[in-house]
Amino acid sequence: MLESPSIFTTLIAFLLVLGPLVVIHELGHYLVGRLFGVKADAFAVGFGKELAGWTDRRGTRWKLCALPLGGYVQFAGDMNAASTPGPVDDGLTPAEREQVFQFKPLWQRALIVLAGPMTNLLLAVAVFAAFNLAYGRIVATTEIANLAEDSAAAQAGLQVGDRIVAIDGEKVEEFTEILPLVVPFPNRTMQIAALRDGREFVVPVKIAEVIETDGFGNESRIGRLGVYAGTAEVVEVGPLEAVSLGVEQSLGIMRMMAAGIGQIFSGERSVKELGGPIKIAKYSGEQFSLGWSAFVSFVALISINLAFINLLPIPALDGGHLAFYAAEAVRRRPLGVRSQEWAIRTGVALVLALMVFVTFNDIASLPIFGG
Fold this sequence. Notes:
The chain has helices at residues 7-35, 94-97, 106-135, 152-155, 179-182, 239-266, 277-289, 292-310, 318-331, 337-365; strands at residues 40-55, 61-75, 137-139, 146-147, 163-167, 170-171, 189-196, 199-206, 208-213, 219-224, 227-228, 233-235.
């Protein structure tokens, strides 16, 4: 068992994870807003009371706030940090109207909102691409070289020498493609298509539920077929392939996140598996103690998580604003300011309630409480 990092190390690591990711996310909004000529009234890292800040020559207040759990860019025309559209004064000059977010074309507003999560996603792609370029990729065929005793695959009739070609209709060509189709789905019955002596057959396999424990004692519930690949080799990749793999890896993680949310709603997973800031801080410290490679990989994972969460169609999040714009595109006119205000208030309440819930989850999972 590895020794857990100190509270000080954990706090520093947490700030090194969340701080830059929040800045990168908000810079995405800010820079695309500037590209389209929108004035930013404030760029904040954190929420609540301002601890330090300055105002630049464009009139933007750059500030660090007391609660380091996010950030925001408040554009001209926004009523508050949640980007609730405020009442627009018809007495604005043409030059002033050009700088107000609400007066921009729909496609520009959508791109400004989308820029935040996309910047987080691009950061993760860049990290994975750099690792792919530096370390190459692992290549192994889907031929079964060994089977775990009494494994789900063995009980279903799969044998050594069979080559898996598809899982639930999704083709697989390399062994690494099997893992994301299996690991997130413990106890789910899957249709495994395989080749034996040149003939394809399909068998239903119920994945074994395995509780996996890492070096710090953190437990995760995963699915396992119990099949093992043969000899694997590391193949060098060029820059273009490295980026292409980085995109695939990032989107694959997002798909697993979406699947996890779906499992929670369907009852396949417990809401207790949701984590919040305390758990992120704990994992940040642990990964930081393992070295820069593990830590940077973790940063990329959290960056994807931040992008995914912000794209959820919840008012007050980026995805909620994009949903407003989709409605506007269909209706050929924007939703009323009052309607958006109430929707965003509801969204803020929902997000806050979720934050409270996952924080209690985090606290309950701490060793001192028997978690």
